[in-house]
């Protein structure tokens, strides 16, 4: 029963109940907002020390000290694995805290961001002999959340590798127009049937359920992608590629603020 209905019907018990219910919802929502803000700030604070630890542990892995025995090398490898897990967790926390509003509008350089995503996904691509190609583009500045823009490109390229054939290719290009940039992520995979091109962005939708499940996907990747694109004032569509495979086209506002 809403407060309005309770007042309208002049039922004192309901009025009191609806007032206390409203107060409770307000308190819960305030508490949730502060928790979200706290999560975001805490995750930001964790980022730098974690990155430093990871870099140091990677260095040890590449150039182990001659005095290190096998046990120490093993221990350091385990530490590296755990810091990687922690970094992923921190990234997820940051993404969650930024999903409602983009509080920190960073200037994000697109070409470098694409490079970073392709480098992070190259081990996955190598396993399936898929080549990752980046078409040369000059400097393109986006305004928004570097964390979310990374996730947007990561999810698209990861899918382009995942739903590709062995020995296939993924090509990422960006074309700057007046005050927008169009990013294309093209693959040589199975393609997406015409009828599914809109539903594909809905939560838990998968074209080939058994195949997607085998990869451990749950069908939320593209939902998140579309939400991030919208948060940045852009659009996303599946473009015709003519030669099979899938092409995702993302259009985002660009240029210095
Ligand atoms: P997930 O990959 O976890 O299942 P997504 O939301 O990322 O979830 O993708 C939804 C579905 O869209 C996938 O299950 C897959 O069927 C299809 N899909 C996504 N990207 C591609 C692609 N590049 N090529 C072919 N199918 C794709």
Keywords:
257 residues; alpha+beta; five-stranded mixed sheet; 54% helix; binds adenosine-5'-diphosphate
Number of strands: 7
Bound small-molecule species: adenosine-5'-diphosphate
Integer average pLDDT? 85
Strand order of the largest sheet: 2-4-5-7-6
Number of helices: 7
The helix/strand order is HHHEHEEHEEHHEE
The Cα radius of gyration reads 23 Å
Distance between the termini: 46 Å
Largest sheet: 5 strands, mixed
Runs in which pLDDT lies below 50 for 5 or more consecutive residues are: none
Helical fraction equals 40-55%
Structural class by SSE content: alpha+beta
Write a brief structural summary.
This protein is an alpha+beta fold and 257 residues long.
What does this structure look like?
This protein has 257 residues and is an alpha+beta fold. 54% of the residues lie in helices and 16% in strands. The strands form 2 sheets. A 5-stranded mixed beta sheet has the order 2-4-5-7-6. The protein has a two-stranded antiparallel ribbon with strand order 1-3. Bound molecules: adenosine-5'-diphosphate.
Present the secondary structure layout.
Blueprint: H1 3-8, H2 12-62, H3 70-98, E1 106-109, H4 110-127, E2 131-134, E3 141-144, H5 146-162, E4 169-176, E5 180-187, H6 209-214, H7 221-231, E6 235-239, E7 247-253
Parallel strand pairs: 2-4
Antiparallel strand pairs: 1-3, 4-5, 5-7, 6-7
Helix pairs in contact: 2-3, 4-5, 5-7
This protein binds adenosine-5'-diphosphate (ADP).
């Amino acid at each position: 029963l809403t407060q309005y209905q309770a007042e309208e019907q002049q039922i004192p018990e309901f009025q009191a109940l609806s007032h206390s219910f409203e107060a409770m919802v307000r308190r819960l929502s305030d508490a949730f907002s502060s928790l979200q803000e706290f999560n975001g700030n805490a995750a930001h604070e964790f980022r730098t020390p974690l990155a430093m630890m990871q870099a140091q542990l990677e260095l040890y892995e590449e150039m182990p000290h001659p005095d290190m025995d096998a046990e120490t090398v093993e221990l350091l490898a385990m530490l590296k694995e755990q810091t990687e897990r922690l970094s992923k967790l921190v990234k997820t926390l940051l993404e969650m805290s930024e999903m409602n509003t983009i509080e920190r509008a960073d200037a994000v350089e697109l070409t470098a961001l694409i490079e970073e995503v392709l480098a992070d996904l190259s081990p996955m691509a190598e396993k399936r002999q898929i080549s990752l190609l980046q078409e040369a583009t000059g400097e393109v500045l986006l305004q928004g959340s570097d964390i979310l823009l990374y996730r947007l490109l990561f999810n698209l390229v990861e899918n382009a590798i995942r739903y590709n054939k062995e020995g296939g290719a993924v090509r990422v290009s960006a074309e700057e127009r007046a005050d927008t940039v169009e990013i294309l992520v093209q693959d040589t995979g199975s393609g997406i049937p015409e009828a599914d091109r809109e539903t594909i962005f809905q939560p838990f939708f998968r074209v080939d359920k058994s195949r997607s499940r085998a990869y451990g996907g749950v069908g939320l990747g593209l939902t998140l992608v579309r939400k991030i694109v919208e948060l940045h004032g852009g659009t996303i569509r599946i473009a015709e590629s003519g030669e099979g495979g899938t092409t995702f086209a993302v259009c985002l506002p660009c240029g210095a603020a």
